[in-house]
Amino acid sequence: MGKNAFLILACGVLLTAGAGELPLAVRGAPAAYTIVVPAAASPSQRYAAEELRDYTEKMTGVKLPIVTDAEPLPAKAVLIGGTKYTDIKADVGTDGFRLVARPPHLLVIGSPDRGALYGVYELLERFGGCRWYASWCEKVPRRDRFAVPDTLDDTQVPAFAMREPFWWDVLQNGAFAARLRVNSRSWRQNEEKFGGTPFRFGGGLASCHTFNLLLPPEKYFDAHPEYFSMVKGQRLKHPSQLCLTNPDVLRIVTSNVLARIRRDPGAKFYGVSQNDWYNYCECPACKAIDDEEESHAGTMVRFVNAVAEAVEKEFPDVLIETLAYQYTRKPPKKTRLRHNVIPCLCTIECDFAQPIDVSPYKHNISFRDDIRGWAKQTDLLYVWDYTTDFRNYTMPFPNVYALQGNVKFFHANGVKCLFEQGAYQGRHGDFAELKSWLLAKWMWNPELPMKPLLDDFFAGYYGKAAPYVRDYFEAIHKMQRFASSFPNKPLRIFDSVADSVLPDEFLGFAAGCWEQALDAVKDDPATSYNARMAAFSFDFLRLERLRLKTDKVLVFARKSGAADDLAKAQGLAKSLLARMAEAKNILLAESASRHEQLLKEWRELVARSSVAAISTTSGEVEEHHISLAKKGTWGDFADDPKAADGKALKLFNTHFEWCATFQMHRIAFEPGAKYKVRVRVRVDKLRDGGEAFWAGVYDPVAKVGRGGIQPRTEKTSSDYAWYDVCTWVPNEREYFWIGPGRFGKDGKSSIQALWIDKIDFTRVDVAQPVAEASRPRDAVLLVCAHPDDLEGCLGLALLMRSKYAVQVVDFTRGEGGCGEAGYLDGSTAVKRIAEERSICKALGCDPIFLSQINFRGRAYAEPYVTAELERIIVERRPKAVFAHWPVDTHPDHVQCSAAVQHALFNVKRDHGFSCELYFFEETVQQTMNFHPQYYVDISPVMSEATELIGRYVCQNGTMLAENKKKRTAAHGRSAPRPVKFAEPYATFSGKPLRGGVLEEFAIPGNK
Questions:
Q1: What's CA 72's distance to the chain center, in Å?
Q2: Is 930 within 8 Å of 998 (Cβ atoms)?
Q3: How far is the C-alpha of 919 from the C-alpha of 932, rounded, in Å?
Q4: pLDDT band at 701 (very low <50, low <70, confident <90, very high)
Q5: DSSP 446-479
Q6: What sections of 236-361 are H helices per DSSP?
Q7: 618 near 763, Cβ under 8 Å?
């Protein structure tokens, strides 16, 4: 900037001092400001000027002219980038910017790469109110005035150099990605005007799994099996890794890496990394290094360091990326990374319901140690994080409350490149638009508060539907966060529908939220689309839950109930298929074969006229009901004249994976009965002496196999034959599996192909009747709002335990009892649950915690929680239920009491069962207008009761115990026959229940 130009800017400060703002555009007035870019402006700087011009016009109707700094400085200008009139410097890197008001001018200072463009978007968002929630959903307010403060001076530098929320909409739309201020490492080239692809992986060497590309087993294994990993004493062709101590492997890989860089120079990264499975090399040389390094990353880092050293001699600016993934996630003990090697640390095993540094899950704990170990080795740390369920893109995956914590954790541990993988293959994964938008915001600035961002997005994207969508959103996250407060209930990225912690009773409440949401925007097509597509994931869960009940291939059980929900399931399937046709690019799962299989099953469901007929002793499952992974690669469905129906499932000999599976939930087995499963197959042999196929039944929850066979080729036939697999008592979470035979020592298959015709299930015994047990004790239920409310009736509970089966039911688990932090992360609940269980142990029970949610001031007892309580009452058929008095200063107590009454009414109406209902008083004097009909002498158990109450540490148990003594002592003096300590009880009618439970324990002479 020249001296005279600087004087012009300085004079401008004097002329407009005290004005308060720079009005960039005023509706109805001529354009006062001109946008100025450098004469040699970069594509992104020119695009920044165009975006500012276009959105200013959309907001105000005023179109600002654009000129270059080759012309004289206009009287009022927005200077974008390093114009010759801008002498203010800013150390903001390639993506940062500085916004400076120098009245009457406004400076947007940023690099020619992306910084100036991002600065313009900050102006439009912060001062114009523009929002870009999705590529199809932008909000541009109508403004009479677009202005910025005349004191503006704001410098921003993003927290991460590489920021990629790898979700479909961001990946497919460069303009949208630029507006979110994210950049890319993906293989898809981004236009230069949007900022280009600054972190591109070149030479076809992507960010993951390049070993087979750099040294293909198809080319090298037959002549040199020693190049590939030795596993259990045998060199493997597939699935294999490389033998990283073999000098020829290093020579070939290095040569191929250099060749690829020469063909495609100029990229930021080139990947040299392990294949996407285990089977690391266990040869003596590799094992010795890994033992020395106390990690399999030992051989990996030494190998990649050697490749990087050779690369640096020819390409000193190139970075070699490698994975710290699964078996290589733990850093080596001795070897250090070269300066031109960047490790990509992957979170694939973690729990994603809570932040990595909060979750008690074992893999989160080890990940914390691993990332800190790598951070000590390098300041070029790259993290590959996961933000969706890859098995079911469109299933509820309540992880939003973990996202910010994870981004903060990565930033605190020195991560420079952050890749957040989501549902990248299709639109409308679970809350996809929200998650990608939030991630973009936090990748720029991890400290942005969550609640204002959520409020902003919900209001802008869902419009009038926002309150109802938000209710559903908060509910599922509350439940998931609590479940994942325990080490054995993580939220994993390959969870199935059966793994969801959302109870069936919750689905009615959630359906009501979505019904209200859709009704609120029925007259707004754009927002209605957003709401309908957001509801897809919930409807997917509902459909898949119903299909577990209705989509039966075989029915053995006389009372399966499969027909009851068929119409509902068909309606949901039709609706989801219609939405997929409307959106055009929804993908249900990362696996294309799973996506196609689900669509096939949904279409079959819609076309079905009834559920399967009841089988008596046996039934067959045809091949088209079998799920096939990697269709076309691992196998395919084909015509086969030798098959009973002319069709079969053909498995190729390129692998020995469990690629063909049949889920047991598709059969309604008679509970407790034993069944034999067998499979009809034929084998195209290549040679005898090898394994033809292997098959079995597997329980993924218990992680155990049931039976299983591995026939050798000489024992099989080229014609179809039946093979018994196992005899067992099935459960619906298991699945039958089959795959081609495992390879021989030479790494080759012994078969050409395996053909599967059908599977047969035959009942081999009849469930034996259970001997009539002695009549159990009558049950009584003590229903409380929270842990620690039990203290109001604990004395009576201790007296009843010898005669009755006492069961404590708590509506909540104690979230929020010790402050907002506990409410959000479940840590308080974990402590309060432990306290409640300790106390209930003295009563001979384990407390039942209902799925109560309490947020945003909604009514306390949601319908699905009442339904849970109804189920407990029907199952246990208690003689009496004890609950809070209906009038109380604590609204939770009042609404809990109302829910109990409502549940009892429904049970009587729907099941014809009724029981006694009594109310107790809280001893902290919250209960109001309480008039007892019973006083129970608890003096004999008072010492034990106060000791137990004292265990409520989270709620100041010592104080509660003292209050208990004082209050029950006062009631003891008021009793018909004075006693030392008494608990009072009342009925709703105000009259004693003659012959009821309390008459056994009450002091004689009660009202």
A1: 55
A2: no
A3: 9
A4: low
A5: TTS-HHHHHHHHHHHHHGGGHHHHHHHHHHHHHH
A6: 247-263, 284-293, 297-314
A7: yes
703, two tokens: 């992680």
In the DSSP assignment, the letter for residue 202 is: -
Reported residue count of the chain is 1007
List pLDDT tens digits, range 537-585. 999 999 998 887 777 888 887 665 556 678 889 999 999 999 999 999 9
Give CA–CA dist 140/819, Å, rounded: 39
Residue type, 723: Y
Which strand (E) or helix (H) includes residue 934?
strand 934-937
Order of strands, edge to edge, in the sheet holding 982-986?
848-849, 805-810, 779-784, 880-884, 916-920, 982-986, 934-937
Taking the C-alpha atoms of residue 480 and residue 492, their distance in angstroms, rounded to an integer, is 11
Q: What CA–CA distance (Å, rounded) separates 114 from 110?
A: 7
Cα-only R_g, the chain: 34
The per-residue b/e assignment along 752-768, b for 16 or more CB within 10 angstroms, e otherwise, is ebbbbbbbbbbbeeeee
Distance, CA of 251 to CA of 237 (rounded, Å) = 19
CA distance 53 to 39: 18
Q: Side chain identity at 598, as an amino acid letter?
A: L
Angle of helix 115-126 relative to helix 43-60, nearest 10 degrees, comes to 10
pTM of the complete model beyond 0.85: no
> Which residue from 639, 862, 852, 842 is spatially nearest to 757, judged by alpha carbons?
639
Q: What is the pLDDT of residues 24-69, one digit of tens each?
A: 999 999 999 999 999 999 999 999 999 999 999 999 999 999 999 9
Cβ atoms of residues 744 and 690 within 8 Å: yes
Structure-block tokens of residue 710? 């591995």
